[in-house]
Amino acid sequence: MGTYYQWVADLDATDEEAGALGQRVVDDLVRRGVVLPGLSSEAALGGQGHPVGPAWPETVEHPVPGGVSGEPPWGLEVRLGREVHDGAQYSVEAVTCPRCSVRRPFYGPPDELGPTGTDEAGLRAFYEAAATWRDGGEADLACAACGTTAPVTRWQAEGAALASLVFVFWEWDELRPEVLRWIADATGGHRIVDGPGKV
Ligand SMILES: [Zn+2]
Fold it and tell me: Region entry Disordered: which residue ranges (predicted)?
């Protein structure tokens, strides 16, 4: 068992603007009836969230065989401040170099990545750089393909996001794509990525 959530991260929000942008997204979702404006500790695990509004069924796919619980979600939590979002599962799958666009997978066949099928050194480098960034610093990742180094925030990560603004949809069935578009529109066209999580 566990508690499931879907995280939706804004890759472009700066530390300074994250609070105002988060409120703008909440205001939009309140206007659409997806969540309520007030905060409740029952709408998020270990924090405060906005309880679901009457229009929440329109935000999830119907029907997805076996994929929809039909239960109302808990709510939406807005998290501000630098954080590494990967669903609490260390689930980053690959990163892609911002310079040469070569993708570095962290998992693969043992003949390419060693007996465990895992690029341990690559994973360690990513999470160390991500932790440095989270703590307010700057950290580069080196590209084995083109030899350049670039800030970890400029690499495209799959299954993880480094962001100062994230929306956590608690116990929510998988969001329809248009919900991600609503969020992107409310932020003024920022890059939005999402992934699953469990605690
Ligand atoms: Zn490169």
Answer: 42-68
| Distance (Å) from CA 180 to ligand 1 centroid | 29
Ligand 1 mean position, distance from CA 96 (Å) = 8
Ligand 1: centre distance to CA 126 (Å) = 15
| 127-144 as b/e: b if 16+ CB within 10 A | bebbeebbeeeebebebe
Q: 89 — phi, psi (to 5°)?
A: -120, 10
Distance between Cα 70 and ligand 1 center (Å): 45
Question: Ligand 1 centroid vs 82 CA: distance in angstroms?
Answer: 25
What pTM does this model have? Answer: 0.91
CA 43 to chain centroid:
18
- The owner of tokens 């329109």 is 58
Mind listing the pLDDT tens digit for each residue in 29-39?
999 999 999 99
| Ligand 1 centre distance from Cα of residue 42 (Å) | 45
**Helix and strand counts by DSSP (H, E) for the chain:** 4, 10
Query: Per-residue pLDDT tens for 68-120?
Result: 566 789 999 999 999 999 987 778 999 999 999 999 999 988 888 888 889 99
Rounded Cα gap, residues 188 and 12, in angstroms: 10
